[in-house]
Design goal:
5-stranded antiparallel beta sheet; alpha+beta; 3 domains; Ubiquitin-like (UB roll); single chain; 496 residues; disordered N terminus
Length: 496
């Protein structure tokens, strides 16, 4: 007897979410944009706006940089972003500029373009559109506001752009020579008015959900636990471009008002999951200045402006730089869900949050809402170190953060966070035990170095061998001892 084969029923495709953004004086509304369509693909392939280039498709080189702006308190807030890893829907309700949008209709160049020409800042030219857009964002944040650009600001703004012709010197000269041109000022009023009309529209249905309130986010998560939750998508974008993954439904938390704040309390600060990395590191550095240079090495400016601290923590990469620091500081995460008609939450210490490689205690219906970090206690000393092949804009081979309390020459408390040496970001509890109660001298250091080299069993990969990582752990602990005991010129930035 023949058998009749019955095809399994397929679920109906999710309705396409609308996408609306301001560009070249009008509101754009491209239809049928998949939730995992990148902004770069939308620009180049769908809209035929080819001034934006694809270089690495990984958010590393900056050739694809564009500028987006959202309306905040009646003004535009400008950010340079990597369009290759940003979902197109993430710019819904924002304004967009590419390198083709800066010159006036009569061909008059924008000041950043004119500065690049005058300083001979373009060689092969492939990376030039990205550099121009990073400079345009810098111009709008500083020069257009009556400020000047110094070398530090220029380095920071261009930290996400690579030039394979090694033409950095003239590009830096162009950045530092920028001058305001009133005739080239962006007329923000009509753009702000257009964007404000869209701001009240909340997208809680379809294939790309972007709720505006915490309760709406938690309810959306409860209804769609299979959807991919994203913030800046600086890692999720790689799943699409490098891993070729499809994300049929996305929940974007970056517009949730409650999660866009840094809240300060007497004993701790709470950093919302939608706070970008730059603002989060600045908030942490306000209490602990040593974090500022560490934060600058986390990634280039566009990644720090798009990615979020909450996303970095929730993602749980063993080579993520923020987690070793937060573990050393005794941070907790606040996990929230919508259950039985109300919001519920729980606090989890970060050093107990991870259960395996990119696995955590986060339930399918939960959202990581806040990262809670204790304020410094009297007598705290903190060291944060990153070792990578490049000094800037590179992923760690090893990351180590050390928090110590030393009284009367004896260690009374210690917390150590490590990255790149285990399947998860880890706390070096055995090394802490070797330190606490001991005099902070070279003999104790030697014992602690041996302990931390034996505490972890790192892997060998393209960034470093296991033996190198173990050795570096010990050497970074020595660096902490040298710094905490007053040794000068221990860091590369000290030499500068």
């Amino acid at each position: 007897m023949s058998k009749t084969l019955v095809s399994p029923l397929k679920s109906a495709p999710l309705p396409s979410s609308p996408l609306r953004f301001w560009h070249r004086g009008q509101m754009m509304n491209p239809g049928n944009v998949p939730p995992d369509r990148t902004l770069l693909d939308l620009l180049r392939e769908d809209l035929r706006l080819t001034a934006t280039k694809e270089g690495c498709a990984a958010g590393d080189c900056g050739a694809c940089t564009v500028v987006v702006a959202e309306a905040v308190n009646g003004r535009l807030q400008y950010r340079a972003v990597n369009s290759c890893i940003k979902p197109a829907h993430a710019i819904d309700g924002q304004a967009l500029w590419t390198a083709a949008d800066l010159a006036q209709s009569d061909g008059t160049l924008h000041p950043v373009q004119q500065a690049m020409v005058a300083c001979h800042g373009s060689q092969c030219g492939f990376c030039t559109p990205g550099f121009v857009m990073s400079l345009f964002a810098l111009y709008q944040r500083t020069v257009a506001q009556g400020q000047t650009v110094d070398s530090h600001r220029a380095h920071e703004a261009l930290s996400g752009n690579l030039c394979r012709c090694t033409g950095y010197r003239p590009i830096m000269q162009a950045a530092c020579s920028l001058e305001a041109d009133a005739a080239q000022a962006v007329d923000e009023k009509p753009i702000v008015a257009a964007l404000q009309k869209l701001a009240a529209t909340e997208k809680t249905g379809g294939n790309y959900l972007r709720p505006n309130t915490l309760s709406a986010l938690l309810q959306a998560r409860a209804q769609h636990p299979q959807a991919q939750l994203i913030a800046g998508a600086t890692d999720a974008g790689l799943w699409i471009t490098q891993g070729l993954r499809r994300l049929p439904q996305i929940i974007d938390l970056t517009r949730v008002a409650e999660l866009r704040r840094v809240e300060r309390y007497p004993h701790h600060i709470a950093i919302g999951a939608a706070v970008n990395l730059q603002d989060a590191f600045e908030a942490l550095a306000a209490d602990r200045p040593v974090i500022a240079p560490f934060g600058e090495r986390f990634a280039g400016w566009p990644v720090r402006q798009s990615g979020t601290l909450g996303g970095n923590v929730a993602n749980g990469s063993p080579i993520g730089d923020s987690m070793p620091l937060l573990i050393a500081l005794g941070a907790q995460v606040v996990l929230m869900a919508w259950r039985k008609g109300r919001a519920v939450h729980r606090h989890v210490p970060l050093d107990r949050f991870y259960t395996g490689y990119r696995q955590s205690l986060l339930a399918p219906d939960e959202v990581l809402a806040w990262v809670v970090v204790p304020r410094p206690a009297p007598g705290e000393w903190l060291g944060a170190y990153k070792v990578s092949k490049r000094q800037e804009d590179d992923i760690s081979a090893v990351c180590l953060a050390v928090e110590l309390h030393v009284e009367g020459g004896r260690i009374t408390a210690a917390r150590i966070g490590a990255g790149g040496v285990a399947a998860t970001p880890a706390r070096a509890v055995k090394t802490e035990a070797a330190l606490i109660g001991q005099p902070w001298n070279e003999a104790t250091l030697a014992v602690a170095q041996q302990a931390i080299q034996q505490e972890f069993a790192p892997l060998s990969d393209l960034r470093a061998s296991a033996d190198y990582r173990r050795r570096i752990l010990g050497q970074l602990l020595r660096r902490a001892w040298l710094e905490s005991t007053g040794q000068a010129t221990v860091r590369l930035e000290d030499l500068a």
